[in-house]
Structures are given as structure tokens and as C-alpha cells.
Amino acid sequence: MTKTIPAEVVEHLRNAVRVAVLTGAGVSAESGLPTFRQAQTGLWSHYDPTELATPEAFLRNPRLVWDWYAYRRRMAREAHPNPAHYALVTLEQHAANFTLITQNIDGLHRRAGSQSILELHGNLERIRRFDSGTDVETWDDDGQTPPRCPQTGELLRPSVVWFGEALPQQELRMAYSVAEQSDLFLAVGTSALVQPAASLPLIAKRAGAYVIEINPEETSLSVIADCCFRGKAGVVLPILVRQAFGETEEAVG
Question: Could you tell me the pTM of the whole model?
């Protein structure tokens, strides 16, 4: 992409009071993490991810599902935030009011330094009780796979959203509110297909926000966005930050 950013985009970045950002799998992919539906490697290449990420799959074979998420957790821990993650940290530092809404569960935004984050699909590093759905802080590592809650004896599971489950209601309500109140909304590395997150930029647009899309491919969001950048988030976002705030790409990445 060109390194010259339209003046109106720079103006919105500098002057926006309430900034909201939605990130999707494309941001994580730039850190080397496969998207959810991409083929897995090794043992996991024989499994369909959509048949592992359900409560029914966990009930049928809890050890298999736990081990798959343990594998994904290891991949996330070995990955590193990329320039897109760091550029969003810089954007947050310059915004009067900033919220990062993410569909990603790898925790890379927080590791990069982002502070105000809504994790719509949960986080691989958190664990919760299968029956009651409440998070646990610690559990006994007694060799059981999956482990059980030391207080209740319930099986423990990853604190992520599976197919057939509702998104966390508090986070979702906050995301709707943030979108409706934003005057600048960035959709970054998301296909704009997965609901209800895909509706957030539409809500922001209807409420009067200036909407920017950053994605290598055209999406359903492209027709309503005020400005679209066709490129990787790790390339585009540092350039936007540099143009708007005088930061260098190296400083944010």
C-alpha cells in the first residue's frame, strides 16, 4: 500500500475522542498463529476444529478436547505480538477514550501492552468449571486430563466460547455500547462474517462513527466503511500511527 494516508483519516485519528477497534484472526495470523479453520498440523490434522470446539465434544471425549486446547495454548505462548499489536498500544495511548474489542483468544494484545480490552470469545489462559461456568484461579495438577476443580470436583475446561454457546453477556453489552458511542471505529483483520461481532462496525456507522477497515481482502464491511486499506494490519497500522502521531514504525513494532 501507499505510505501516504488520506488527510481525512489522519484528522480522524488525531481528533477522535472515543475510539473503538475490533480485531479478528488476521491480526493473530501475522504472529504465526493459524486461524481457527485452517488445517492443523501433526496429530491434529486428522480432526475438524469445528467438531472439537463444542460442549458435546468435551462430554464425549474431555481429554481429547483439553489436549487440543493445551496444544493451542502452547502455540499462543510461543508466539509474539507483531507490529499491529504494538501500533494499537500506541493508538490507545493517544486516544482520550479507547476500547479494543477482540475475537482472538491468544492474549497477544494484552502481552503487547493494550489495557482496555474486551475479549468476546474468551482467553486460552483462563480456565473455568464445565458445569457452573465460573472461572477458577488455581487447580491441582495431579496428572488428570482434564483436571478437576479442587473445590467442587467439576471438570475444568478452557474459558473460551464454543459453538452453541453464547458470548459473555457483560462483554457483549459493553461492546455494543462502545460501538454505539464511538466516533472512530477500526475493523482490523476480521472477515466480518462471525456474528455478533460483525454487527459492531455497522452499529458504529449508524451512530455516526467514521469507520476504517484494514484487511487484505474485501469483506461485507467494505461497502459501508468510510476508508478501506487493503493490506496486512502489521504494515498498515504502524503507518497510520506514524502519520497521525509522528511515531516511527520501529517505535510501535
Answer: 0.91
